[in-house]
Design brief:
Elements lengths: L1 E6 L8 H13 L7 E6 L1 H11 L6 E3 L7 H9 L6 E4 L5 E2 L3 H11 L3 E15 L5 E9 L2 H9 L5 H6 L4 H5 L10 E3 H6 L11 H11 L3 E13 L6 H8 L2 H14 L15
Length: about 270
């Protein structure tokens, strides 16, 4: 069983359509109800979502700590997950009809893997002249191990190439890995001290590097499983791009490449934070 965690910092009217599609995608692609979805939010947001979806309390993990950023929400929620694996599911995204079936097959075949990265289709919403919105495909994400492993790392073991294993060396040189839709083994997430929330936009990147450094296996699944909406106005990642220069953003990734060798989250000097 997999529990999908859907962190929500706040509720706005313009989020209603996204939340509805996110929830519908889960329900439609989980016909046997063997998988779980948990919105992670405070009581105020929970009441708004329940007012919209009329869903049960069982679909929520309530976090009233006051720390409701996406990475805090994930760290908080995992302690309440009762499945062996959990997925990161953003509320404005959707899963494909093969998400659960492919994930379960790979988990069964690869119980030693700590982090599975699905092939993601990234889309952007665009408004047409008649006022209607369309979703336009932009690119795929997480396919890089398949060509980097073969072309740039010829000495990589054949078993790694076949499985799409991501090594530390590969990951250090590529910041474009997308952890939306990722499936993570709960036991290893807790063992490796969760996410370091002080690394901003590079938080997920550092976690993946830390896993590989600790000899935990990370693989990319070459199956289209997840639809990720990019450039949504008001999203965390879009706000970062709008408020920080590319140089400042890269500074976070440079920090991540220094911090992943440390097991615990360390205090970062102010002059190193953009």
């Amino acid at each position: 069983m997999i529990t999908l965690l859907v962190p929500i910092h706040e509720y706005k009217e313009e989020y209603k359509e996204y939340i509805e599609k996110c929830h519908q995608s889960y329900k439609i692609n989980n016909p046997t109800a063997t998988q779980k979805l948990k919105f992670v939010c405070d009581d105020k947001v929970k009441s708004k979502i329940q007012g919209q979806l009329n869903n049960s309390d069982d679909e929520f993990i309530v976090n009233n700590t006051g720390k409701t950023g996406i990475f805090y929400q994930i760290n908080y929620a995992v302690d309440f997950v009762d499945s062996d694996y959990f997925g990161i599911y953003e509320f404005d995204d959707m899963i494909s009809d093969r998400y659960f079936s492919v994930a379960e097959r790979y988990i069964k075949q690869n119980p030693d893997v700590s982090l599975f990265l699905p092939l993601i289709g990234e889309v952007i919403r665009q408004e047409k002249e008649d006022g209607k919105n369309i979703e336009s495909f932009v690119r795929y994400a997480n396919e890089f191990p398949w060509f980097k492993g073969v072309i740039e790392y010829p000495d990589l073991p054949e078993s790694y190439k076949k499985l799409g294993v991501i090594t530390t060396k590969m990951a250090e040189g590529y910041e474009g890995i997308q952890l939306s839709g990722a499936i993570i083994k709960k036991e290893d997430f807790l063992e490796t001290k969760k996410l370091k929330t002080n690394l901003g936009i590079a938080t997920m990147y550092e976690y993946m590097l830390r896993l590989t450094f600790l000899d935990k296996k990370v693989i990319s699944i070459p199956k289209f499983m997840y639809i990720h909406r990019i450039a949504r106005e008001g999203s965390y990642f879009e706000n970062v791009k709008n408020t920080l220069t590319p140089e400042a953003i890269m500074k976070f990734f440079d920090l991540a490449r220094k911090e992943y060798v440390f097991e615990d989250e360390r205090e970062i000097e102010n002059n190193l934070i953009p």
